[in-house]
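User:
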Amino acid sequence: MGREVDNKEREGVKVDNKEREGVEVDNKEREGVEVDNKEREGVNVDNKEREGVKVDNKGREGVEVDNKEREGVKVDNKERGVEVDNKEREGVEVDNKEREGVNVDNKEREGVKVDNKGREGVEVDNKGREGVEVDNKEREGVEVDNKEREGVEVDNKERKGGGADK
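Assistant: Predicted structure:
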């Protein structure tokens, strides 16, 4: 398809992008939008400055998603072999169940609940995060850097072969 779609300044819009491949979508400044990106592969999505948005990325592979400065957003990244940059996101619930081989940068995120159950071969950088509950049950071969985290509850039950830097 190879199309570029510019949705700047669109508000209150429901977009269903199922099975779209090779599409670049620019959603800057869109608010109150529900986007369904199921089964999209090889897509670059720029969600900068989007607030109050529910994004469903189930089944997407090889996708780079930039969620910088997004607040109050629920993101479902199940089964994505994706690099996600969540810097400066606050009040966000992220479900990373079943993601493998993923690098997640959560620097400076506060008040965030992250569920990493079942993730393998993942490097997670939680530097500078405060008031965060992280559930790392059943993670194997994972390096977790928790430096400078305050008021944090970390559940590392059943982790194997993981180096923990606390």
